[in-house]
């Protein structure tokens, strides 16, 4: 990097002039809202002074913290299943498909990624409904006698999430595999490793940081998502985003909704700190 | 040899199963948008275009479409502009506390849309700022600015800096350098930023849901349709949105990734 200009024109004001709109925007519409939310979370919907009552309510009311437990369970299940399904698929796309078809194969694999998120969840409802495609097929094959309940369950939420994140992770893991130099594989083969042990001892460890980044991304996006659990899981079992939206929609309880949002953010921050060790490797 | 063909067969089956899983809901959506009867469930009774007619004669849906495009275009242009100016400033000048400020601008990337929307709702509610498309647009700039900034900042290389210096030596003023030299050189990155912002804004639901009231965007109107349960009309509008998104992606592919013929 050569010497940066000090910005002599406008008496050194130019750097500030170009940088400040973005900084001010972020302060006004990202930092200030967060502070407003933190302040409001210490008040009560019914009025009165500042207290931690909303937070105490969360930890003392089982139906509230159960939502956090549900969210963590669903998110972990989704992250693990998505990686287990996406990794072999990305590997097949990167290794088994001829080079000239790879781009087309990848575009096809992520095409539904570009449909509307709301519509994609609704599409799964069509598939999983009581008289939907899956139940209809199973009935016709004689595998079941009665329709089984698939929609409005945790299963449906997990399927909807896994569908989305398999596409996302296939993209990231594919990119990761393609970045590996072929000389690693050659070196492993020269040193006498078979395909299986090359994969286990060379390819897998080298792509591990990429997997961790994908896992973190999945975790963050899934735990904050309202659409998929609301459309597919319904109200039988609430996840954190549903609980937050319920406070806003039904009761207009901004203080409790703010407290819940901040708790959700704290969980994501802890997940970030826990995985920061692996996330950093990727950047280097 | 047999082991190798065995692996080939197993991987082929696996790939077909995953492709099937990925396409099952979309195929179901599109197929039953052509349903002739009232429910989008088997057996298929079409093909019929009646639900597409129903969509096109639905005022709420047809007015949500321009709303969505309006919010997407304005907020993406804004995010790209702010991101471009900031990226240029941080890349070319010595700005005090540069790392902290860059961190601040990219921070919203790590926070979920729901929380960004909730924060804005609480703030606007406190300030008495009404729910509107403008409010939703402000939220969309918040989610897209970090992305635009990150893309453009990563593209501000030393090679462009030298050309900018040459332009200055030849007497160009700073605004001329920015407008006539830097922006044209970064055209692909600017286009990518704008395009990505467009797709995120176009598809964004929860911020628009929280921050708009009467005039709203297409994803929120589709959400409202879902209250009526399974309905082929939802399939029809969903298929149309899919078509538009595919057109976006094809445009992007053609504009950015088309390789020179030779």
CATH architecture of chain A: Orthogonal Bundle
Helix/sheet category of chain A: mainly alpha
Considering the protein shown, what is the CATH homologous superfamily of chain B?
MetI-like
Structural class of chain B: mainly alpha
Helix content of chain B: over 70%
Distance between the termini of chain B: 39 Å
Number of domains of chain A: 1
Radius of gyration from the alpha-carbon trace of chain A, in angstroms: 24 Å
In CATH terms, the superfamily of chain A is MetI-like
Number of separate structural domains of chain B = 1
CATH topology grouping of chain B? MetI-like fold
Indicate the CATH topology of chain A.
MetI-like fold
Helicity range of the residues of chain A? over 70%
* CA-based shape of chain B: globular
Q: What does this 3D model show about the protein?
A:
The complex is a heterodimer of chains A (284) and B (262). Chain A has one domain: MetI-like fold, CATH 1.10.3720. With 284 residues, chain A is mainly α. Chain A is globular, with a radius of gyration of 24 Å. Chain A has twelve helices and no strands. Chain B is mostly helical and 262 residues long. Helices cover 77% and strands 0% of the residues of chain B. Chain B has helices spanning 2-33, 50-56, 59-92, 98-106, 113-127, 133-155, 158-169, 174-185, 187-203, 206-211, 218-226, 232-257. In chain B, α3 (59-92) runs antiparallel to α9, α5 packs across α6 and α7 (158-169) runs antiparallel to α8 (174-185). The radius of gyration of chain B is 23 Å and the shape is globular. The chains are: A mainly alpha (284), B mainly alpha (262). Chains A and B meet through α1, α3, α4, α5 and α7 of A and α1, α3, α4, α5 and α6 of B.
């Amino acid at each position: 990097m050569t010497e940066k200009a000090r910005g002599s024109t406008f008496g050194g004001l130019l750097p500030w002039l170009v940088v400040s709109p973005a900084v001010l925007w972020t302060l006004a519409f990202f930092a200030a809202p967060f502070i407003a939310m933190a302040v409001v979370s210490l008040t009560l919907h019914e009025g009165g002074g500042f207290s931690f009552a909303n937070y105490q309510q969360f930890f003392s009311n089982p139906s509230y913290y159960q939502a956090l437990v549900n969210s963590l369970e669903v998110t972990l299940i989704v992250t693990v299943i998505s990686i287990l399904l996406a990794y072999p698929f990305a590997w097949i796309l990167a290794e088994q498909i001829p080079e000239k078809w790879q781009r087309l194969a990848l575009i096809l694999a992520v095409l539904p990624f570009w449909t509307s998120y709301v519509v994609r969840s609704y599409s799964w409802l069509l598939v999983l409904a009581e008289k939907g495609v899956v139940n209809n097929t199973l009935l016709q094959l004689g595998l079941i006698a009665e329709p089984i309940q698939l929609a409005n369950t945790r299963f449906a939420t997990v399927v909807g999430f896994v569908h989305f994140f398999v596409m996302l992770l296939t993209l990231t893991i594919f990119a990761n595999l393609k970045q590996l130099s072929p000389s690693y594989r050659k070196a492993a083969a020269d040193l006498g490793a078979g395909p299986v042990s090359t994969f286990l001892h060379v390819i897998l460890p080298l792509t591990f940081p990429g997997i961790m980044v994908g896992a973190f991304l999945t975790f963050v996006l899934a735990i904050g998502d309202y659409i998929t659990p609301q459309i597919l899981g319904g109200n039988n079992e609430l996840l954190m985003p549903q609980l937050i939206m319920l406070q806003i929609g039904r009761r207009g309880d901004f203080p409790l909704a703010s407290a819940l949002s901040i708790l959700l953010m704290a969980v994501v921050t802890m997940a970030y700190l826990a995985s920061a060790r692996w996330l950093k490797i990727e950047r280097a | 040899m047999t082991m190798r063909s065995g692996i080939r067969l197993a991987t082929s089956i696996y790939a077909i199963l995953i492709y099937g899983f990925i396409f099952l809901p979309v195929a179901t959506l599109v197929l039953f948008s052509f349903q002739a009867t009232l429910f989008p469930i088997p057996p298929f009774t079409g093909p019929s275009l009646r639900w597409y007619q129903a969509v096109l004669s639905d005022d709420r849906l047809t007015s949500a479409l321009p709303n969505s495009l309006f919010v997407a275009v304005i907020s993406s242009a804004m995010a790209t502009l702010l991101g471009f100016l900031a990226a240029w400033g941080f890349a070319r000048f010595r700005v005090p506390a540069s790392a902290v400020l860059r961190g601040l601008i990219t921070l919203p990337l790590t926070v979920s849309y729901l929380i960004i929307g909730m924060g804005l709702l609480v703030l606007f509610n406190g300030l008495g700022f009404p729910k509107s498309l403008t409010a939703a647009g402000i939220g969309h700039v918040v989610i897209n600015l970090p992305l635009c900034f990150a893309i453009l900042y990563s593209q501000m290389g030393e090679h462009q800096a030298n050309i900018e210096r040459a332009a200055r030596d030849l007497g160009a003023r700073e605004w001329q350098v920015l407008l006539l030299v830097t922006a044209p050189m970064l055209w692909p990155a600017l286009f990518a930023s704008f395009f990505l912002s467009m797709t995120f804004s176009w598809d964004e639901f929860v911020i628009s849901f929280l921050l708009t009231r009467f005039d709203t965007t297409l994803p929120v109107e589709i959400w409202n349709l879902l209250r009526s349960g399974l309905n082929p009309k939802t399939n029809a509008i969903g298929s149309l949105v899919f078509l538009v998104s595919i057109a976006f992606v094809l445009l992007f592919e053609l504009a950015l990734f088309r390789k020179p013929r030779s």
